[in-house]
Amino acid sequence: MASVPSDGSAGYLPETVTRSVKILVVGSFGVGKTTLIGSVSEIAPLRTEETVTQVSEGVDDLTGVDDKRTTTVAMDFGRITLNGSVALYLFGAPGQRRFWDLWEGLAEGAAGVLVLVDTRPGRLEASFEVFDQLELGIRLPFVVAVNHFPDTVPHGADELRTALDLLPETPILDCDARDRASALNALTALVQHALDVSADRPADVPQDIPVA
Amino acid sequence: MTPPDDRSGGYRDSALRPYVLTKGRARPSRNTISVDTLLIATDPPPPLPVSAGRQERALLAMCRGLLSLVEVAARLELPVSVVRVLASDLVDSGHLTARAGSPRSAQLPRDLLQEVLNGLRAL
Ligand SMILES: Nc1nc2c(ncn2[C@@H]2O[C@H](COP(=O)(O)OP(=O)(O)OP(=O)(O)O)[C@@H](O)[C@H]2O)c(=O)[nH]1
Ligand SMILES: [Mg+2]
User: Fold this and answer.
1) What span, in angstroms and rounded, lies between the C-alpha atoms of A34 and A26?
2) What pTM did the predictor assign?
3) Which residues of B touch A192 (CB under 8 A)?
4) Which CATH number fits the domain that encloses residue B92?
5) What's phi and psi for B113, nearest 5 deg?
């Protein structure tokens, strides 16, 4: 894998870039988040740390006795420069409940969330808490991409919609996180969906909470 | 510098370091700097006070080209929260220029979403 140039001379954004946009890539453990980001990113995916203050309530590690504690969590990210003027950043965040505070910081002002799911037997259940947080917590537009592994059995979108209890308008698509075109297709579907959803809202009326 | 290319999933616990590196402050002086806020050193650079630390100098050197906050943090191998504090001080002192990252508001402007969609389709 390529790495950041040691002299730091390369990898800078063109100075024509004036704006940036975030997309979150979330999903359960090992579902392919890092792989997908790596498939589309123009820089080698980087890993960094964010310090989050967690309220111990709802934290799956019950050793915390304080009301609040600070933890350091890792997140990975990639970058795509679009049209020389917008930098698109993809952030991979783990789906487990104890990472939800990380999502909150990342979700603020994001275009939407690409949710990767693994539909192999016994794996889908791990996605349930991801959808809980998307629907009750951060409420950004999201699409669901089924990442295909060699032993993934194809399910109909309707069957999956029922199993995950998704709204009829939430797009569900297939993807191969290792394939750049397939990963870009999933991102395109997400941004299209974010536009569709925003068209449903009255224009120029500031809203605090986006319609998911 | 070695890249933070740790695919093993391990991470360093640095709960104390943010307070040390930022001279006791955990919060930036301004809250407008987001993970994707774009940063670049002001050209020509105003002189740094002699009190400026190693971290500030490293940050400014890294920002001789345009990078987001999170990229600067990853390249410097520092937590995002630390770099956010250092960067906002350097913006306040005029050493660093910040270009708008994602808005604090929940909703993105439609024209920006459309630009992203067009850009993705053109790839
Ligand atoms: N066959 C196949 N394998 C995949 C695909 N996507 C990911 N993998 C493999 O699945 C494993 C996990 O992928 P990662 O991208 O590390 O998953 P992740 O979601 O980032 O995992 P965590 O960060 O640990 O939660 C790796 O061995 C990948 O090579 C895919 O689309 N098809
Ligand atoms: Mg990963």
Assistant:
1) 10
2) 0.83
3) 117
4) 1.10.10
5) -60, -40
* DSSP codes, A24-93: EEEESTTSSHHHHHHHH-SS--EEEEEEEEEESTT-S-TT--SSEEEEEEEEEEEEEEETTTEEEEEEEE
Residue B66 lies in a domain: yes
In the chain, the amino acid numbered A23 is I
Sign of CA dihedral A177, A178, A182, A187: positive
Pick the most confident of A7-11, A37-41, B43-47: A37-41
CA-wise closest residue to A40 among A106, A7, A89, A3: A89
Q: Are B49 and B40 in contact (CB under 8 A)?
A: no
Q: Domains of chain A: which residue ranges?
A: 19-200
Q: How far is the alpha carbon of A202 from chain B, nearest alpha carbon, in Å?
A: 12
Q: Quick check: bond before A14 cis, omega within 30?
A: no
Highest mean pLDDT among A29-43, B10-24, B45-59: A29-43
Task: Sort B64 into a burial class: Cβ within 10 Å, 0-12 / 13-18 / 19+.
Answer: middle
CA distance B18 to A51: 9
B20 vs A: CB within 8 A: no
pLDDT of residue B15: 39
Q: What is the pLDDT of residue B66?
A: 97
Give the total number of structural domains in chain B.
Answer: 1
List beta partners, residue A92: A25, A76
Q: Can you name the CATH fold of A19-200?
A: Rossmann fold (3.40.50)
Mutate which of A1, A24, A28, A34 for ligand 1 pocket (most atoms within 8 A of beta carbon): A34
Give the ligand 1 atom nearest the CA of A28.
25
